[in-house]
């Protein structure tokens, strides 16, 4: 009667008595192979969880150090980023100054060429005019 497979052989009255006897039900349950298997699995899980908790706690200082190192690296990255941004702005400003200088030199050269052409044309006209005037 201690095994659940024997419940079919019990009469209704015996089953009711069994249902009312909590100690007997607990005894039957504890004797069950399935219950024992589940209990062993639960014990293994508990041991496994304890081991994982110990490992996790032992890793905590390493994680803390890694977290601090990561924070320092992010600060370093931000400093480097600001230096690069400043250099980029300097180069952009320098490029704009050089571009403006190049543009002015180009315009001056173009104006000088136009002036030389204009002077040459004027001198030719004066020379031609003088030739016609002397005749």
From TrEMBL:
Coiled coil: none annotated. Component of the ESCRT-I complex, a regulator of vesicular trafficking process. Required for the sorting of endocytic ubiquitinated cargos into multivesicular bodies. May be involved in cell growth and differentiation. The lineage of its organism: Eukaryota, Metazoa, Chordata, Craniata, Vertebrata. This is VPS37 C-terminal domain-containing protein. Keywords: Endosome, Protein transport, Transport. It is a peripheral membrane protein. The keyword Transport applies. Residues 10-116 form the VPS37 C-terminal domain. Pfam families: Mod_r (PF07200). It comes from the Eukaryota. Belongs to the VPS37 family. The keyword Protein transport applies. GO terms for biological process: protein targeting to membrane; protein targeting to vacuole; ubiquitin-dependent protein catabolic process via the multivesicular body sorting pathway.
């Amino acid at each position: 009667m201690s095994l659940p497979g024997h419940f079919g052989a019990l009469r209704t009255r015996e089953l009711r008595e069994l249902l009312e006897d909590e100690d007997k039900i607990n005894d039957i349950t504890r004797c069950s192979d399935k219950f024992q298997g589940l209990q062993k699995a639960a014990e293994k899980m508990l041991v496994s969880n304890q081991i994982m908790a110990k490992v996790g706690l032992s890793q905590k200082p390493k994680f803390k150090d890694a977290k601090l190192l990561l924070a320092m690296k992010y600060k370093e990255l931000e400093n480097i980023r600001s230096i690069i941004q400043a250099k980029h702005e300097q180069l952009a400003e320098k490029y704009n100054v050089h571009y403006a200088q190049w543009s002015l030199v180009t315009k001056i050269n173009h104006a000088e060429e136009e002036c030389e052409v204009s002077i040459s044309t004027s001198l030719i006209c004066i020379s031609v005019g003088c030739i016609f005037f002397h005749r």
